[in-house]
Amino acid sequence: MPDNAHQPTVPASGDSCGGAGDSSAESRRSKKAPSARDEQAICAAILNALPAGAALVDQAGTITSTNDLWRKSGGGSGGAAIFFGGAGANLAELSREAVGPDFIQFQIITAGLQRVLQGRQTLFTHEFTCDHPVRGRWYRVTITPFNAPGLGAMIMYLDITERRETEECLR
């Protein structure tokens, strides 16, 4: 397989997203708008390209979609899918149901999510631990506004265990 087999294709006009490349009337008529199915595939590809687990939530705090890394974090290994749930889960409801050490983490994270959804904060970050049968894991949660129809925010989590362990060794 050639080295560039997975490289994105860029139209000859230099316009990679159907914007202001070639402005001739003939060129504009020949370009088709992406279908809803194409837009969903593009959204999924963007989410899966992120180096972190990611979920999109609506204005009510309900997860509408997740990337592969978010979903793979389930299955008993800790991480976002175990902690936050998957598509359809409402973070405010999960927060009310949390017990033990998760309760405090949920309260902090859902309060940050609410501030972002209400427009009172443009970036929320929080680091937390997640119990794991073999060894504890550390994650950084980042929540940012996601201004698209029907959506309110993007939640991303990144495993920062290695960094935290290095910091501990340096103390």
Shape, per Cα inertia axes: globular
What is the overall pLDDT average?
76
Structural class: alpha+beta
What portion of residues is helical? Answer: 25-40%
What's the SSE pattern? HHEEHHHHEEEH
Q: How many alpha or pi helices?
A: 7
Low-confidence stretches: 1-24
The main sheet comes to: 5 strands, antiparallel
Task: Give the radius of gyration.
Answer: 20 Å
Strand order, biggest sheet?
A: 2-1-5-4-3
What proportion strand? 15-25%
Number of strands: 5
> What's the N-to-C terminus distance?
47 Å
Oligomer: single chain
Write the layout of secondary structure elements.
Blueprint (H helix, E strand, L loop, with lengths): L24 H6 L5 H14 L3 E5 L5 E4 L1 H5 L7 H5 L6 H7 L3 H17 L6 E7 L6 E9 L7 E7 L1 H10 L1
Antiparallel strand pairs: 1-2, 1-5, 3-4, 4-5
Overview of the molecule:
With 171 residues, this protein is α+β, with helices and mostly antiparallel strands. Helix content is 37%, strand content 19%. Strands 2-1-5-4-3 form a 5-stranded antiparallel sheet, with helices on both faces. Helix 5 runs antiparallel to helix 6. It is globular. The termini are far apart.
